[in-house]
Amino acid sequence: MNLIIANDGAELSVSDATFAAPYNETLIHQLVTAYQAGGRAGTKRQKSRAEVRGGGKKPWAQKGTGSARAGSIRSPIWVGGGRAFAARPRDFTQKLNRKMYRAGLRSLLAQLVRTDRLIVTSELSVAEPKTKLLVEKLRQFAVRKLLIVVEAQDDNLSLAARNLPFVDVLTASAINPVALVAYDKVLMTVGAVKLLEERLQ
Predict the structure, then answer these.
(1) Which residues, including other chains, have CB under 8 Å from residue 62's CB and lie 6 or more apart?
(2) pTM, whole model, 2 decimals?
(3) What are φ and ψ of residue 137, in 5° steps?
(4) Alpha carbon separation from 128 to 125, 132, 152, 188 (Å, rounded)
(5) Are 110 and 179 found together in one domain?
(6) pLDDT (tens digit per residue) in 109-136
(7) Residue 149: which domain range?
(8) Residues facing residue 119 across a β-bridge
(9) Phi and psi of 2, rounded to 5°?
(10) Count of domains observed in the chain
């Protein structure tokens, strides 16, 4: 299949296997869920009654005081006591095979093409790291939320986009399913398209 290059009207030939893959909603949902789960810290930790300092001595006699029996001042029902079911550090990552991950990205890219959300440009760069220069270049696309995908790290471009709240810049190697889903349009350079095509074969 061919993609139209926005800035000069030329056609870019790409693989049908990558940019015309069938839409698999279930796989894409699993892909996005697994990616977000992998970003969770899972570092919450609380102390049980065995780990809280103090409470070694029985606070009062078992009988005769008129108070309820108590064995420790660090019981979970006491203020300052340990937690009955203390939280422990947890790993939220979900296993996702490499073949599934690549198939999901192919399905996402093909859906971007089908819904006219993918814009291809021959190149995108700014002479200086100034937001104003990037805004002038993006004005022709008339898009509010835009993901820019380039083939290699461009510090000028990243710094120019940093102050735009709905614009993000990623390299082709750092592309992820959440970013592809979140933005209204995805602007890719020709080099980034070729790198993704090679990576997802």
Answers:
(1) 69
(2) 0.79
(3) -70, -35
(4) 9, 10, 17, 20
(5) yes
(6) 999 999 999 999 988 889 999 999 999 9
(7) 2-41+96-199
(8) 187
(9) -120, 140
(10) 2
